[in-house]
Structures are given as structure tokens and as C-alpha cells.
Amino acid sequence: MLSRRQVLRQLSSLPLIGGLLGGILTDEATAAASHFTYLDDGYHDYFNELGLRTVINAKGTYTSLTGSLMPPEVQEAWDYAANHYVELTDLQDKAGRRIAEIGRSEAAMVTAGAASALTLGTAATITGTDEEKIRTLPNLDGPRREVIIQKSHRFGYDHAVRNTGIKLVEVEGREELEEAVNENTVMMLFLNKANPEGEIQDEEFVELGKKHDVPTFNDCAADVPPVEHLWEYNEMGFDLVTFSGGKGLRGPQSAGLLFGREDLIEAAKLQHVPYGNTIGRGMKVNKEEVLAMLVALERYVNLDHEAQWERWKSQIESIQSAADTVPGVETEYYVPDIANHVPSLRISWDQDQVQITPAEVQQRLREGHPSIEVNGGSEDISLTTWMMRPEEVRFVGERIHQLLEGATAQS
Ligand SMILES: *Cc1c(COP(=O)(O)O)cnc(C)c1O
């Protein structure tokens, strides 16, 4: 078998790749980049070859860190799909039916992420199956269509709804919402994780939608676990519900789920691939995303969620006890109520005793070998283990202990 160095040498003798690698690869980078022993010599270490370092993800599901890792059976489904042709619309229909069964909704489809589902679902409420309108979106004739949202539910992804040309109408409370409904209203948008902040909570929101015959859309992108959320909001009566595929479900990062009413999912599919002249054409999913998303979902609902929770909890506790042994350090086990609802750890310290700032700890962890990414605030760092490989947990605990202890003032 070839050694890593031989592979690299061979690679760089190829004109194209050699040019690509020549400028950026150093021996140190090569040595530093591979920290996992399963990357045996002879395998391509592509990221390394590009001069990149892989990281231990103790942050959670962040798009900038590439989300989650697809489990082996999901990767197998991806590979299977990559090797066969199939009629794409038929695949969406058949996979959608299975997905809808799992989510206990009338219908479902695979989208290019939750943000894509927001666009396709909104577009569906505007155009229905009207081909002319689908082609014309977002510049329809007549007054701008309106989507009602509670002020406290405005969020960083609502561009995905606004890009259909609608106007977001902010309201506070039941009375304002009912006054805001008019003949231009196409949808009512709900951000699931903002439920506790809104004056109108989920069930009442659904009730108001039904009363005024306006479709309701619930964005639950980061809201599994718990697994029950996959059907809870469909059963509650939301007309559209989305989840990210590449967060807790560990499907492709380039995929998401859109559940909903049959007529709306039909209309949403018409805004999407393979149809060319549509708002969703640039949000392509191919057979790999559709199949791997379905397989990821099936895998996820069949997991032993209790055992998984216990595993995460004990992983957090092991990092917690490693950090706790440094004098002046305080740790707190916590679980966010909704969105990223997983065992998490907050670590803070008395900076007179442990003389390093959270930002410095974050930086040192990032620059270490292997590199570790954690969340950092002004007063603490925080982390989760659910996106880590099990064998990384001990190392993270040791590294944090080492850093904090090393910064302890000598008396
Ligand atoms: C992550 C997220 C999105 C975007 O999801 P993608 O699957 O990355 O498109 C949308 N809304 C909320 C609330 C999210 O957390």
C-alpha cells in the first residue's frame, strides 16, 4: 500500500491536482491534519490535500461547520442513488409518501434544506398550481401578497419567505392578527422555537388560521430531538411544517423536509426541480438527497432515543468532571427547551484564579491538534457532544482540563 506521502507525491505529479496542491501543502500541514487513525495510508485525505484541517465539532449543528455527519446507512443510500438513474418526480412522489406516513401528514417532499422549504411552501400558498403565476413569481400582478407573523417570531431566515415577493406583516396578539387578515393574506408564519415568546401560542395560531382560512406554516428546522416533534405539529393542524435534513436527523446537509396539506405539497413540487422556470429551480435536490433523506428519517425514528440521550448525558458528565477538577472552575449541565434540545455543558471560571478569557480558550482549542470547536460567550464557553464521534469525548475533556489548569495562577 502507498504511504500518505507517496500518495501525495503521486498526486502532485498530476498536472491539475499538482498545481492545486503545490502552493498550499506543507509537511507540517500534512502531519497536523490527520488526527484520526482510521485514515489509513493509501486513502485520500482530501481536506488535508487541500490544506484544510478537520475539526472536532463540540458546537452542535452549524451550517458553517457543515452541519452533521451522515451515518453509514445514509451514506450507503447516497452512494446507491449516485449509481442509478431514476425518474426524479416519481422518486419525490414515492419517497414523499413514506415521509408523510412517518410525519403523519397528508403529504411531504424533500427540499434543499428548511430554508428552501420555507420558499417552496410560501410560493405554494401564493400560486397554488396556476402555471402562469408559478412562472411569474415573485412579480405577480396586483397588490403584494401578505404573510402574517408575530413580531417576536421574526428570525434570521425569513428572507426565504420574503424572496417570494410577499410583504411580512408583523402583529402582536390575537386582536391585531385578526385585524391584519385581508384578501391579500396568503399565509401565517410561525417560528416553533419562539413559541414561548409569542402572545399567540401554537394551538391558538392554528385555530386562527383555520378560522380565517389562511394556511399556517411552522418552521421547526432545528427542533428534533425530541422525535415526536416530527408529527406533533402536523397533528396539531399546521398546514405546512419544515425540518432541516442535516441537523438532528443527520441526513444530507443539502436536504430538508416539507410536510403539509396535499394540495400545498402538490403546488410546492411544481415550483421545484425538474421544472425550469420556477422560483425553486436553484434549490435543486437530486436523487441522492431524496433517497438519503428518506433513509436518514427512517433511521432516526427507529433509534433508541432514550439510550442515545443517556449516552449524550454521560458524555457531557465526563467532560464536566474533567473541567470541574480545576479550582475556580464552575460547570453547568443544561438542556435548551426547544431547538438543539440536547444535553449541553456551560463552563465558566473565576478569571483571577484561572487567568484566561473564554475567547482565548476558544482560540487555543481551535488552534490545537486536533482542532476543537466550542461555543464561546463573554463569560463562558459551552459545548455539546451530539455531533461528536464517541472517541473524541475524552480528548475534549482532557484538553479543556489542561488549558484551564495551565492558566491557573501560581500562589
Ligand atoms: C437551520 C435553520 C433554518 C435553515 O435550515 P437549512 O436546513 O440549513 O436550510 C431555518 N430556520 C431555522 C429556525 C433554523 O434553525
Write a short abstract of this structure.
The protein is an alpha/beta fold and 411 residues long. Helices cover 42% and strands 15% of the residues. The N and C termini lie far apart (54 Å).
Walk me through the structure:
42% of the residues lie in helices and 15% in strands. The chain is an alpha/beta fold and 411 residues long. The chain folds into 3 domains: 50 residues, no CATH class; 230 residues, Type I PLP-dependent aspartate aminotransferase-like (Major domain) (Aspartate Aminotransferase, domain 2), CATH 3.40.640; 102 residues, Aspartate Aminotransferase, domain 1 (Alpha-Beta Complex), CATH 3.90.1150.10. The strands form 3 sheets. A 7-stranded mixed β-sheet has the order 2-8-7-6-5-3-4, with helices on both faces. Helix 11 links the parallel strand 5 and strand 6. Helix 5 packs antiparallel against helix 14, helix 7 packs across helix 13 and helix 15 packs parallel to helix 17.
Unreliable segments (pLDDT under 50, ≥5 consecutive)? 1-38
Question: What is the count of helical runs?
Answer: 17
Number of domains: 3
**H/E order of the elements?**
HHHHEHHEHHEHEHEHEHEEHHHEEHEEEH
Catalogue the ligands. pyridoxal-5'-phosphate
Beta-strand fraction estimate: 5-15%
What level of helicity do the residues show?
40-55%
Q: Taking all residues together, what is the mean pLDDT?
A: 91
What order do the strands of the largest sheet run in, or round the barrel if closed?
A: 2-8-7-6-5-3-4
Q: How far is the first residue's CA from the last residue's CA?
A: 54 Å
Q: How does the SSE layout of this entry go?
A:
Elements: H1 4-13, H2 15-22, H3 27-33, H4 46-49, E1 55-57, H5 72-82, H6 88-103, E2 107-111, H7 114-127, H8 131-136, E3 146-150, H9 159-162, E4 167-171, H10 173-180, E5 185-191, H11 202-212, E6 216-219, H12 229-236, E7 240-244, E8 256-260, H13 262-269, H14 287-301, H15 305-324, E9 329-334, E10 344-349, H16 358-367, E11 371-373, E12 375-376, E13 381-384, H17 393-406
Parallel strand pairs: 1-11, 3-4, 3-5, 5-6, 6-7
Antiparallel strand pairs: 2-8, 7-8, 9-10, 10-13, 12-13
Helix pairs in contact: 5-14, 6-14, 7-13, 15-17
The chain binds pyridoxal-5'-phosphate.
Pyridoxal-5'-phosphate binds next to helix 7.
